[in-house]
Design goal:
Elements (H helix, E strand, L loop, with lengths): L1 E3 L2 E6 L12 H10 L2 E6 L10 H14 L3 E4 L1 E2 L5 H7 L6 E4 L12 H10 L6 E4 L3 H13 L3 E3 L5 H12 L4 E5 L1 H5 L32 H9 L6 E2 L8 H4 L14 H10 L5 H15 L9 E11 L18 E11 L2 E5 L2 E2 L16
Parallel strand pairs: 2-3, 3-4, 5-6, 6-7, 7-8, 8-9, 9-10
Antiparallel strand pairs: 1-11, 11-12, 12-13, 13-14
This protein binds N-carbamoyl-L-aspartate and zinc ion (ZN).
N-carbamoyl-L-aspartate binds next to loops.
Length: 365
């Protein structure tokens, strides 16, 4: 049995408030625990989006009643909330800025809308950018001009990882995350996956829709080759129901909390990654980048030799599917201990609703 620290996932979509048929604070945190994740940072593209004090309270009060693992909630950057967002910074995971189109209506088209956020959001809290390709280059220029840290969400392209590498070499305060689906899948028609070979077939149509899009083999290889440039693994757990994914107008996004660790451990077994890569990118670096507290008496126990097939029917997420259906993986989460209590064991969630803590609240004990 392998013992690891509880993982931190800095990018997930809980869907509450507003779209709890896809997921809520209960089901999302169950999925997290089953995946060996003991802390999640939740994105603000809910309905309504998390833009101000009252919407932040909506999300945090739902979380307080339902969450089974620890968490923090991101604020969304809007066209006119830079002062409010800055004042709420201590209560939030950070500020998320959508510079490109995706699910939800948070895109900031005009660069004059970016400026107040770069000027006002406290420099010791990260700004996370959804920014692809040239928009990402623009975001990095803003980080340099305003001399403040930015964290680039879900890097997927060769040109992106190479630019981030160059920006880091210049001393620009940029960090980044990569999602498992951009490491293990290519755009349709899917090519043999690194490590998993011919797996990945059958992912077409609406089910393959995700932002950023799945990329080419060359992009995927560039991510693997620049593993040292990647600061964090993040799932971008973005649950939509199977009916929605198979509809005329499929929303983009994949669930990912429960497949993160088995996929990464299989890559370790294959010699592509080390356990230390997982600890650095799923615990140490997210904690440092987002100023997250240590979770005392928290660990996960993993059976490294357990081989099994990923199946949606075994998942706790409400969305009912996974892009990795049928993939053969090696490494199973057996037990999760969160702050001294067994929160998950042998397929059963043991932590109760409300056990999860908001990591931005100082406990007075
Ligand atoms: C995300 C979602 O569904 O909320 N979708 C996605 O494809 N990643 C939005 C996002 O993170 O861009
Ligand atoms: Zn996302």
């Amino acid at each position: 049995m392998l013992k690891l620290p509880g993982l931190i996932d800095p990018h997930i979509h809980v869907r509450e408030p507003g779209q709890t048929h896809k997921e809520d604070w209960d089901s999302a945190t169950q999925a997290a625990l089953a995946g060996g994740v003991t802390m999640i940072l939740a994105m603000p593209n809910t309905k309504p989006p998390i833009f101000d004090n009252s919407t932040l309270d909506l999300a945090l009060s739902a979380a307080k009643g339902k969450a089974r693992c620890d968490y923090a909630q991101f604020l969304g950057a809007g066209p006119d909330n830079a002062d409010i967002a800055a004042s709420l910074a201590p209560k939030a995971a950070g500020l998320k800025m959508y510079l490109d189109s995706t699910f939800g209506e948070l895109r900031l088209d005009d660069m004059t809308l970016w400026t107040p956020h770069f000027e006002k959001f406290p420099k010791d809290f990260p700004i996370v950018l959804h920014s692809e390709s040239r928009t990402m280059a623009a975001g990095i220029l803003f980080a340099a001009i305003y001399d403040r840290p930015v964290h680039i969400a879900h890097v997927s392209l060769k040109e992106e990882i190479l630019l981030i590498k160059a920006a880091k070499e210049k001393g620009i305060k940029v960090t980044c995350e990569v999602c498992p689906h951009h490491l293990f899948l290519t755009l349709p028609p899917p090519l043999p996956s690194p490590i998993f070979g011919e797996n990945g077939g059958g992912l077409g149509g609406g089910r393959a829709e995700v932002r950023p899009h799945l990329a080419t083999k060359e992009d995927v290889e560039a991510l693997w080759q620049n593993m040292d440039v990647i600061d964090c693994f993040a799932t971008d757990h973005a649950p939509h129901t199977l009916a929605e994914k198979d509809s005329e107008n499929p929303p983009p996004g994949f669930p990912g909390l429960e497949t993160l660790l088995p996929l990464l451990l299989t890559a370790v077994d294959d010699g592509r990654l080390t356990l230390d890569d997982i600890i650095q990118k799923s615990v140490i670096n997210p904690r440092k980048i987002f100023h997250l507290p240590e979770q005392p008496e928290t660990w996960i126990e993993v059976d490294e030799s357990a081989e099994y097939e990923i199946k949606a029917e075994n998942q706790f997420t409400r969305c009912g599917w996974t892009p990795f259906e049928g993939w053969k993986v090696k490494g199973k989460v057996r037990k999760v201990v969160l702050r001294g209590k067994t929160a998950f064991e042998d397929g059963k969630i043991l932590a109760e609703q409300g056990y999860g803590r908001d990591v931005r609240v100082q406990e007075m004990e």
